[in-house]
Design brief:
heterodimer; A: 310 residues; alpha/beta; Rossmann fold; 2 domains; 6-stranded mixed β-sheet; 4-stranded antiparallel β-sheet; 9 helices; 14 strands; B: 446 residues; D-Maltodextrin-Binding Protein, domain 2; 4-stranded mixed β-sheet; two-stranded antiparallel ribbon; 70% helix; 7% strand; elongated; transmembrane (chain B); membrane (chain B); transmembrane helix (chain B)
Amino acid sequence: MNILTAENLNKSFHKNIALNNLSLEIPKQSIFGLLGPNGAGKSTFIRIVNQIIYADSGEIQINGEALAPKHIGTIGYLPEERGLYKKMKVGDQLLYLAQLKGLSKTDAKAKIKVWMERFGATDWLQKKVEDLSKGMQQKVQFVATVMHEPELIILDEPFSGFDPINANLIKDEILALREKGSTIIFSTHRMESVEELCDHIALINKSEKILDGEKTAIKEKYKSHIYRITYRGKALTPSNQFELLSNIEHVDGTSEAKVRLAENFTSNDLLELLLSQSVQIISFQEEIPSISDIFIKLVQGATAEKEVVA
Amino acid sequence: MSKIGLVIKREFEGRVKKKSFLLATILVPLLFPAVIGTMLYFALEEQKSAKEQVVYVLDEGNDFELESDRKYQFQNLDSDIEAAKLAFSESDAYALLYLPKLDLMNPGGMVLYTKKNPSLQASSYFENKVESQIRDKKLKASGISEEQLEELKTSISLPSVNISETGEEQASSAGVAYGIAYGFSFLVYMFVLIYGSQIMQGVIEEKSSKIVEIIVSSVKPFQLMLGKVIGVASVGLLQFAIWVVLIFVLSTAVFSIFGLNPAEMQAAQQSMTDVSSMNGSGNESVEALMNNSEVNEVMEIVYDIPYAYYISVFIFFFISGYLLYGALFAAVGSAVDNISDAQQFTLPITLPMIIGFLGTFMFVMPDPDGNVSFWLSIIPFTSPVAMMARVAFGVPAWELALSMILMVFGFLFTIWIAGRVYRIGILMHGTKVNYKTLLKWMRTNG
């Protein structure tokens, strides 16, 4: 079941195309990484989902229903450019934002209390935002995003500006929210957090989606069949099954080899082959491409392709 | 509560709870009369204690009899002009008035020598003095006796009474109308500019603190803009209401100190009109008016002013003028990143307002029914100020209605334009904005 389905979204600003026939499916309870270089169209997509701007054509469905103003309360949005009213008290501010999301005053007050207790921050409620430290403000900002318990949480660069302790805290909260049933769309450049948190990703480049799917499946698809082997014994001899890319002999008698396995062979085939060469294997590891590698490869590839065309 | 209501509430409460609002609201009604009173007091004191200034008079033909008064003391010199000039330059005297031997049929050659440029008031004072003496001499020369001359001197005051279409008479005063015209048009001008620029600052604050994207994910940009404009307007209206109440209370207090009770005066006025209506003629009220002392006369006119009418017209033009300009200020606020960038755009907005204000002084006040006054009070951008001034002098109902209808179209138009700029502007950071970009935003869809 998908919480969000986008079909053939198009959006342009004057002659600049921001989204070109973008289609996406975001499964319920996933942590969905929305990746792409600056200016790729991620923010445009997020703003369309938030109904801040409207697509020129195409359709978005939330839980199978066409996106409408009533969905505002089911979405929690933390934009990349974010802030709070500096002169307003934290409590008043959270109340205002919660009411704008459609919560009643009593509901909002109860939820604010729960969240602020959770962050050990109940005594901030009477303080003005400008009197809080940056880290405190970020926590308040996060509370403002999730306090109305949205089904869909959209976080645009959520960790930018967070110190590592707060970043971890937020990370744990994100995982906890997912456990409770929320879906998280996560737009970021930080590949290590994508690697760590996301189970689905989509890569947008130059207004078009160039990749999308489960993270493990994508990694599987983009792996290069390269293995790193540390062993003791005489040097490996390549065969028609594998190609020896590099082989370094260390003084302690161990060697490190990098081999590429030919098509249609599995890691087990390689192991058997190695054993038959009577070497003692110390470690054996497949090199799996990181999301970062895939990102760079695809984005640069796309650029190179465009340049060739031009 | 609806979302727009929440925005209005936040804008309203945030501003009303500020100390600066409280101070301005309470101090201004106290401060204005206090400042004016102090200035009046010092002016009067100065007049009382002013040292009379010596004016040398060199009257070659002994034709003039200049009487010294509180301000100027005339001293006749008996020398030639060169010696007189020398004596004058060495003295502390204020001026030297040189009057050559008078040729009654062709007077001329008089010179006023001063050390500094004389004020307009002073030179016309001397001119009047000399002129009236020459006139008297001419009259005498034509055979009028001293007694007849005395009899010729008349002084009248001309009370004016407005007669409405239904024949009702009401004492009027150009001075009072002038005061009201000035007061109300200035109020509209001030309120619109002050509160208009407050909207702009609010929008810039929202944009620079970067909360705006969070807000517009819950509220449509247009709702946010409208809520802001309305919220700030209610602050302005509240402030005006408090001022009216405070000024009324204060003036009642002041009048009772000076022994004038407005309630009694109104009652007296009421009984007077009752009598005149029983007699079936308006003569009584005219007589009563003439019998009153000058102060009472003005007071009566002041209490006869249809305040409810003026205040309702004021409220209309304040709200509509404010909506018209406030929307534009909001648009400017949305397009820039900080106050200093806003300046290039605020000038074209404030210009029509300034034109309306200056036009009110140059055209409407001297000639409320002139052509320029008419157009100033009909065109939406200048009409809030100009019409407020014309209303004080009396304006035909159809002109007022036309002006109001155009004003409604005017603010609907600017709000629409502003909304189109605003929805895009608030999401743009660090973009260099010029008029071309603004036009582009207005034309962008979705």
